[in-house]
Write a structure and sequence with these properties.
Bound molecules: calcium ion
Strand content: over 45%
Protein name: Translocation protein TolB
Oligomer: single chain
Shape: globular
Organism: Candidatus Methanofastidiosum methylothiophilum
Number of strands: 28
Mean pLDDT: 90
Number of helices: 2
CATH topology of the largest domain: Neuraminidase
Radius of gyration: 21 Å
Largest sheet: 4 strands, antiparallel
CATH architecture of the largest domain: 6 Propeller
Low-confidence stretches: 14-22, 348-353
Structural class: mainly beta
Order of helices and strands: HEEEEEEEEEEEEEEEEEEEEEEEEEEEEH
Number of domains: 2
CATH class of the largest domain: Mainly Beta
C-alpha cells in the first residue's frame, strides 16, 4: 500500500474513533451459540473459542464452540462431572470429579492431549489460567479452610500462593500476567477483602481496605474489578494497581454481580430491570451501556476483546449467547494499527488477527 493511502486511512480511522466515542459503546449483534435442549452454564472465552459446562449427557461435561467455523465440540467424555472451565490460548482447564473428589484437569485443544494438573487429596476447584500458569482454590490441608495454589504447566512445578491462617477461607482466584487475586476472609466474615500476590516477586498485598465486604475479583492489566456491598447493595468497583486508586463503577440501587473485564470494558450481571441483564462500562469513556434487553435472565458474563458471552434462560433451559460490541480491543499480541485499519475497511486477509 502507498504511504499516502496509509496516512489517509489513519486519519479516517482517527475521525471514526472519536465519532464512535461520542455515540457511545453499543452492541453490534447478538447470536445464540447452543441449541441443544439441555442446560449450558458458566461460559469462558478466549479468541474464537467459547467453552462451558454442559449437562446433555446427564453428568456434566465441558463443551466448546468455534466462533469462526461454527463448530461445536465435546471436550470431556468421562462419566463423572467436569465443571467451571477456564481457557487461555489452546488450553482449557476445569475441575474434575473422576477420582471421587475435585481435581484440576485440562486439555490442549490443538494436540488433543489431556492434562492432569492436580490430583491431590481434598478438593481443587475454580481454576483460572493465564499463559502457562493455572491457579485454583485448594482444601488439601483442611476440609473447611481453602488455600490458593498454582502450577506452571511448562515446568510442571506446583506452588503455594496463599495459605494464611487456619480460620481464613479463600475464594475466586483470578490471574493476569504475574498477578493472582482472590477474595479473602482474614479481616472477618463481615469484612471480606480482595488480596493479591505477585508471582515474580513472591509478595502478597492487600487490595481493598473498606470495612464492608468485597467479593469476586477479576483482573486485566492493572485493573482489578470486584463486587462491593459498602452502599448496602452489590455494586461493581475497580482498583488500579498502578495508581493505587479505587473507583465505583455502578450506582444503581439494584444488585450488580459477577464482573468480568477485558481491556477498557467491564461487564456484569445486573438486576435493575427486575429480570437479569448484562451491562457494561467503558473505562476509557466512563460510560455505562446495556448489553442485553431480552426479558428473561442473562447471567455470569465472560469477555474477550469485543465478545461478551453469558448463559441465557430465554429458551426455558440455559443457553450460551454472545454479543459483539463495537469496541476496538487491545489484543495481547502487539500489532501495528495498520493491520486493524486493513481489517476494518475490508482490505487484505480478514482472517488474520
Ligand atoms: Ca462428564
Ligand atoms: Ca483432589
Ligand atoms: Ca473489606
Ligand atoms: Ca434480561
Amino acid at each position: 500500500m502507498k504511504k499516502s493511502l496509509k496516512v489517509l486511512l489513519i486519519l479516517v480511522v482517527l475521525a471514526f474513533s472519536s465519532f464512535s466515542a461520542v455515540l457511545g459503546t453499543k452492541v453490534l449483534s447478538e447470536e445464540r451459540i447452543t441449541t441443544d435442549p439441555s442446560y449450558h452454564y458458566y461460559p469462558a472465552i478466549y479468541g474464537d473459542i467459547v467453552v462451558w459446562r454442559d449437562n446433555r449427557n446427564v453428568n456434566y461435561d465441558i463443551y466448546g464452540y468455534n466462533l469462526k467455523t461454527k463448530e461445536e465440540r465435546r471436550i470431556t467424555t468421562d462419566t463423572s462431572n467436569q465443571d467451571y472451565p477456564a481457557i487461555y490460548g489452546d488450553i482449557v482447564v476445569w475441575q474434575d470429579h473422576r477420582n471421587g473428589n475435585w481435581d484440576i484437569y485440562g486439555k490442549n485443544l490443538r494436540t488433543g492431549a489431556e492434562l492432569v494438573i492436580c490430583t491431590e487429596s481434598g478438593d481443587q476447584e475454580y481454576p483460572a489460567i493465564y499463559g502457562d500458569i493455572v491457579v485454583w482454590r485448594d482444601n488439601r490441608r483442611n476440609i473447611s479452610n481453602r488455600d490458593i495454589y498454582g502450577k506452571n504447566l511448562r515446568t510442571g512445578a506446583e506452588f503455594v500462593i496463599c495459605t494464611d491462617t487456619p480460620a481464613n477461607d479463600l475464594y475466586n482466584p483470578a490471574i493476569y500476567g504475574d498477578i493472582v487475586v482472590w477474595r479473602d476472609n482474614r479481616n472477618g466474615i463481615s469484612n471480606r477483602d480482595i488480596y493479591g500476590y505477585n508471582l515474580k516477586t513472591g509478595q502478597e498485598f492487600r487490595i481493598t481496605t473498606n470495612n464492608s465486604s468485597q467479593y469476586k475479583p477479576a483482573i486485566y492489566g492493572d485493573i482489578i474489578v470486584f463486587e462491593d456491598i459498602r452502599n448496602g447493595n452489590y455494586e461493581i468497583y475497580y482498583y488500579n494497581l498502578k495508581t493505587g486508586q479505587e473507583f465505583r463503577i455502578t450506582t444503581n440501587t439494584s444488585a450488580q454481580y459477577n464482573p468480568a473485564i477485558y481491556g477498557d470494558i467491564v461487564v456484569w450481571q445486573d438486576y435493575r430491570n427486575v429480570n437479569v441483564d448484562i451491562y457494561g462500562y467503558n473505562l476509557k469513556t466512563n460510560e455505562e451501556f446495556r448489553i442485553t434487553t431480552d426479558t428473561s435472565d442473562q447471567n455470569e458474563p465472560a469477555i474477550y476483546c469485543d465478545r461478551v458471552v453469558w448463559y441465557d434462560t430465554r429458551n426455558h433451559n440455559y443457553d450460551i449467547y454472545i454479543a459483539y460490541l463495537d469496541v476496538v480491543c487491545e489484543t495481547p499480541k502487539k500489532s501495528l494499527p495498520i493491520n486493524w485499519i486493513m481489517k476494518k475497511f475490508g482490505l487484505g486477509n480478514k482472517d488474520k488477527e
